[in-house]
Specification:
heterodimer; A: alpha+beta; twelve-stranded mixed sheet; 44% helix; globular; B: mainly alpha; two-stranded antiparallel ribbon; 2% strand; elongated
Amino acid sequence: MSESRLDEVLGGDADEAMVARMWAGIGARRAARVRRAKTVRVAGVLAAVAVLVLVAMSLRRPGPLAARDGSAVRAWSVPAQAEPHTIELDDGSAITLASGTSLEPVENAGDRFCVLLHDGSAHFSVRPGGPRRWIVEAGVATVEVVGTVFDVVRDPSGVRVSVERGVVVVRGERVPNRVRRLEAHESMTVPSAVAKMEEAPPPPPVASLVASTVPPPTPSASAKAPDALLDDADRARRDGRTQDALALLARVAESRDDARAALASFTRAKLELEDPAKLADATHDLERAIARGLPAPLDEEARARLVDAYARAGRQDDARRAAQAYLTAHPDGRVAAEMRARADAP
Amino acid sequence: MSRFALAAHPKEVVIAHLRPAPADREPAVVRADPQQDADLVVRARGGDAAAEEALYRRHVRAVTRLATRVLGKADAEDVVQDAFVTALGRLPSLRDGAAFGGWLRRIVLNLVRARLRRRALFVWRSDEREGEGLLALATPGLGPDELAELARLDRALAELPAEARLAWTLRHVEGWALEEIADGLGVSLATAKRRLATADEEVARHARGGRNP
């Protein structure tokens, strides 16, 4: 089909009825804008007075955060076999705790809300523009936010922070330069003291008494802990070295550390999904990530991406099965309606 | 002059290879007379409602076709209305009334891209969304071969990032020159070329049955 033929066979032209209808719609929208502008001007006088009142009120600190139902915030603990639990707060923020997670508020003084993540994985969705600074204490790392969406996973090997939207600041003695800013789609891992000790290279061999000397072993890249490899992969991705990032993530994905291997597989899949030629690799990595176990919010996203990847690859039966699996795992998930449509598609 | 090199296969008709257009080709889209636009802009700025409507009618069909072929019918009308509300509201800032057409196209493209970015926030991108894609715009009476070609194009375009898909549509459906694409999208000529090359490669790959050479 030639380009001129392509232009001929495609519609998209507006007939007179559509042209007239759109002009009427344009007029209505412009009139609405004018009305809004007038309303703003009239309200300006009242606002000037109101500002004085608001300034006086703003000098007072905001009250403590409460649950949406009005109850006081308290410690939360989700048992290991239980479903994830979401806590909705009265400022519109929400915290989702994965199975086996324990979270305790330690400060709720109005302009600061500080929680301690004892163990497990928590997904935070902090309303932007709020009056409070949120702080998540997680042992070796402290995460500070003002309006953002992020995950914190804490286990004996350390703390991993992943940012979905917004910006967080991570502080800690084991954070490089003791502070690091993470933006959307960035993540970092802060190893615990135990993990740091396990990372230490083996001592060099005792020098031989024979004349020939044995050179001390040089540190090998393969001896790096999964967390360090994940951080290297993040740097490579930010620098645009996608292939390097994929290679580093592949090594973590093969490790015996299920949690980090799952995260690595998931991150690989997201990079691979950007390249149509790597669709098959992406589906494989998503399947591996789900099988090895992701925190609940990432599991939901991974399952939804897997449905999309199958559909794009033309594997409609697999897409339907994956959509059904999503609904089983996350019946009230964010995209459950779309998944139902996909699962029911012929 | 055809901008496609059609490689006819004995068994099926495919778009096998896309060659760049010759440098001296005429634009496929007939644009409104800039001087008339300049006169209408002056009058519209002075509050002449008839001049505003005249400006609208001179350009609405072209931008509607553009928006529909990229977004589909469902979103196109909304985007076109928003574009004209924006353009008519910002007329005082348009220094050269004769450039109204290109300026309006840039507004439309910005809104189109915003709409495409919003769609990309949904996790999946199906090439079978109702009302979207070239196949959904096919005029009645097309034969099965041509319908199959449109479907193949849709599958190829669905694999592309939104910016590359947009560049392909502007070039091969709307007939824009590379310079026009770069200006409309607000990018360098090199970036426009790169996006188009990405799109052309994907379309060609689909034409080869999904196989890489």
